[in-house]
Amino acid sequence: MGADIYPTFSMVQPAAREFYNQNRNLAGVKSVYRAEDYYYALGMGTVGRMEMEYGPFGLEGHIRYHYFNSIEGLDRYQSIVVNDIPLEDERLWLQLTFLYDLPIENLKLGLNADKIYRWSDIDDHSYDMNESRFFARLVFEF
Questions:
Q1: Which residue among 33, 37, 123, 127 sits deepest, i.e. has the most Cβ atoms within 10 Å of its Cβ?
Q2: What residues contact residue 137 under an 8 Å CB cut-off, 6+ apart?
Q3: CA of 66: how far to CAs of 22, 51, 118, in Å?
Q4: Does pTM top 0.70 for this prediction?
């Protein structure tokens, strides 16, 4: 078991970007967002994890949460930014992995189930989404 918390400086592509970009004029917004569809953000991240083993079986769980808040007033071309809109994104990622030791040394089969939630705010537009992922993987431990 373990947990971490840490500050972040990130380049974030907001989940709400398509909805916002279709409904708004991007003139005068942050230059990097207007040109590349991402923004610079300060934030924080947290990770929690647990692992259990019993014979050839294992179970791992991870939970990750990230929060991003755009940096206002420091654009490279700040003199032409007349609409320095606030952007904010959050992501919660839940991951559960079932592991089985294969008869080959240091090799395991992993079956994953992931759920990812995203929340995004751009100015007065909000958007949320979630996705589920299921996959298998081979794990080589050394």
A1: 33
A2: 109, 110, 112
A3: 26, 22, 10
A4: yes
Task: Tell me the pLDDT tens digit for each residue of 12-58.
Answer: 999 999 888 888 888 889 999 999 999 999 999 999 999 999 999 99
Q: Residue 22's pLDDT is what?
A: 87
- Assign 116 a pLDDT band (cuts: 50, 70, 90): very high
Of 74, 67, 66, 70, the closest CA to residue 20 belongs to 70
Return the structure tokens found at 101: 């030791």
Query: What is the number of domains present in the chain?
Result: 1
Q: Assign 3-class secondary structure to 54-113.
A: ECCEEEEEEEEEEEEEECCCCCCCHHHCCCCCCEEEEEEEEEEEEEEECCCCCEEEEEEE
pLDDT of residue 106: 94
CA distances from 6 to 12, 87, 120 (A): 17, 20, 21
In which region does residue 136 sit, left (phi positive, over 0), alpha (psi from -120 to 50) or beta (all else)? beta
Residue 6, domain extent: 2-140
Cα separation, 17 vs 11, whole angstroms: 14
Q: In the chain, what is the straight-line distance between the N-terminal and C-terminal CA atoms, in Å?
A: 20
